[in-house]
Description:
The structure holds 3 protein chains of 3 kinds. Chain A is mainly α. Helices cover about 70% and strands about 0% of the residues of chain A. In chain B, a hairpin with a 2-residue loop joins strand 9 and strand 10 (about 210-215). By secondary structure, chain C is mainly alpha-helical. Chain C has a two-stranded antiparallel ribbon. In chain C, helix 3 (about 60-70) packs across helix 14. The longest helix of chain C is centred in the N-terminal third of the chain and has 32 residues, at about 70-105. Chains in contact: A-C, B-C. At the B-C interface, strand 6 and helix 2 of B face helix 9 and helix 10 of C.
Amino acid sequence: MQTQQSTPAPSLREKIATALEDQRVLGYVLMTPALLLILIFIAYPFVLGVWMSLTDKIVGTPGVFIGLGNYDKLFASDIFLTAAWNTVFFTTVATVFKAVLGMWLAVLLNRKFRFANITRATVLLPFIVPTVLSTLAWLWMFDATFSVFNWTLRWLWQVDISVFGLVLKENWGFFRGPLWLGDPGMAMTSVILVNVWRGLPFFAISFLAALQTIPPDLYDAADIDGATGWKKFWHVTLPLIKPVAIVVIVFSIVVTFADFQLVYILTRGGPNNETHLLATLAYQLGMGSGNIGQGAAVALFMLPLLAVVIVFQLWYLRREGVR
Amino acid sequence: MAQILLKNLRKSYDETEAVRGIDLNIEHNEFVVLVGPSGCGKTTTLRMIAGLEEITGGEIFIGDRLINDVPPKDRDIAMVFQNYALYPHMTVEQNMSFGLRLRKVANAEIARRVNHAADILSIGELLARRPKQLSGGQRQRVAMGRAIVRNPEAFLFDEPLSNLDAKLRVQMRTEIKKIHRRVQTTVVYVTHDQVEAMTLADRIVVMNNGIIEQVGSPQEMYEAPQTRFVAGFIGSPAMNFIPCRIVQSGSGLAVRLSEDISLNLPDEQANRYRAYLDKDMVFGIRPEHMTEQRQHTNEQQLDFGCVVEVLEPMGIDTMVFVEINGVDVTARAAPRSVSNLGEEMMFTIDMNNMHLIDPKTDRVV
Amino acid sequence: MNAMVGETYFRRLLVFYIPLFLFVFVMLFPFFWMLITSLKTDAELYNPRLSPFIVREPTLEHWENLFGTTLFVEWAINTLWVAIASTAVSLFAGVLAGYAMSRLVFRGSTMFGIMIFITYLVPPTLLFIPLTGVVTWMGLQDTTLSLIFTYPTFLVPFCTWLLMGYFQTIPKELEECARIDGATRLQAMLKIVIPLAIPGILSAGIFAFTLSWNEFLYALVFIHSPETKTIPVGVTSELIKGDVFFWGSLMAGALLGSVPVAIVYSFFVEHYVSGMTGAVKG
């Protein structure tokens, strides 16, 4: 780019042009924008975050170094321990469901049927629209009084099967249905449900892409060998998409582990701080109560697990020789 | 058009040395073919001449200019790649004129040169097409056209025919030769196919393990290989190598191939090989110099019998595979003279075309 | 798997059509619900005895409210501006870095690769508290610029990673040939490699656009003034007053906020999907 601008001193321009022919120089020049962004907005905040977590900084004060004081406090706090446990539980359960259901959906979508393309495109919708906005719809569907699920359950409860006209019984309202977000266990289930709803298409479409790279003659060969549907899936499909599956799962674990939006919209950590994840707790402490030091400490707690995942991933990629 | 001079050229990657000191003088307008097995360093050498690989040691001159640190764009060379490397997003015309447009050549001149090159290659009607719409042979022509329009000091070819099917390859080979006659220029051509090397080259450079084994005209390479590698590499089917011993036979010498087969050496060879008396050597003979027994060649007792193991009729000749001293040996015989499988057949060897190789140095003595 | 030979219609219904229909139904139901809700009168919405599946008196009052009394249009403009600008910044940095790492040999390129990969996996939630400090320190708090600069933190690694993979699929010889033809390294990159990488760049761009359109946490934390907010933050903060949820308008806003990404997506499904799968395969 520099070579095309007219610089007053042609010798300088030539010098730059010559320097850029050296791939070492050009390499660093091209890396500069990305590196600057990463240094200023990731590396520096990371260091700052570690520092903050070691201070008692609250909003508007400089904060004093207190060593591991924040971490001590956190380990003594039930809310924090619950949030840490919730995060692991939430991530594990949601990922398992997403992987299994996503695989099922991918296998379905991989068959030939009319409107296959539009169906594939449609099921991806939950993944592409803004999460908070779709989660708002779920919040409404989970509403304590006006939940559509509960209305449906009540309706099923009330239907008088003897009359085909779907008449409501007199004791309408007797069955209330679950409090989707009111009870801690139920609230966590609901949050997981929404996460699965949102993340499943990503799994399905990634798996589908992998399935489509499997040469059909492998199935033909399996047919000739007498393998049935399940056996083909188990012995042909699964081993072949394993590399993609592992990467997708690892990627999803990272995203799910750091999830913030679902809990923020659906429960705000409630009832009774029982459904906090590390991210929402960090937000509540750091932004809500202005206790920046503690908030930063909670957020940093995501690091150990992320590190494990990243190291595993790097190891795996290297072993597979992807890079 | 200029000469290219390589002085002690070296290239190493981390631990491995790909090119280990090459000296070569390529004359003005000469067609030089670098040939050798894969990994012998021929492509690396070519890429160093092109400026695509950095030079670890040594010097390269094009004309009188030392070009070690000159970027490829300023070396004034053109290169034809194995996969043609046509720019998929440009038409044939744009592909051919890309280099000229970068050099800000006037439009009229560009058009003139492109049309001239298109004429030479008879690809005039393809100018508006994109590479995807071309056949393999057409792509090959366009790649050459792109080189021709530049009118460079030298053409570099990197295995340009290896992606073509066998028939087209032969056709394009002839084509390249014709074009070289029309567009007089220095050519460095890399291939692993010795037939290509033989047919195209003014001079062949056989490379192996990062060094030059031998340089010479195709005929020299065939008649007087200097190393066992060259002897085995040039010529098809390949030369036979049979372990042997030089023994005394009357006043002269003989080559003993096995218990039963001893071949008397003509006087000229006997004098040359006297130093190797009673030593274990390797006897090299091309299949075409080991034929069915012919009446007039019996004087020096060069006939012997072997059991026929495999036959490969080629039409004009038949390849006969026999075993001598534990080695598979190929002979080339007239189809009518060939015995049946499993039966003995008499052969004769033209000792004037034999080669004797010292197994310790692998050099032809 | 193709339609299997000898599969009965009944079996196909049971193992294929019914499950597939259920999946599609569940995936789409919330969007249907947004639409239904946004068209009902409040009286209808808040009557638990009425069937919620039927709209008795369709009304546009919630939509009017969304456009009349909230700053939805401003939010939409902000969101669009932030998404386009941060995508542009990220593509610029990502194309250059991706090119350098897939094509050039220089000391530290492997280390940069690992660094980019690690940042690719660092979630925004890990850094938002100190980032707030950085944004304030740069005087960017409560401006869309704060988002345009911070969104690339998760977009650049993604774009770089994806484009690295894409550049590697473009034969090296094309570039080498261009350089022999007389191009500088930069010209070879600009005239040969980048034009050929446009499908990959488009995929990265589409994906980056939807990611920044959907981002929530940074926008929630850095932006306070209602007129500077993006759609996700605006809808959730301005249409929920304490315990009062304006469900009709909320659902209208949620639907409308989802439409642009859905449209972009529908035009570029193939690119989006290849971006998405490329993002994980690298």
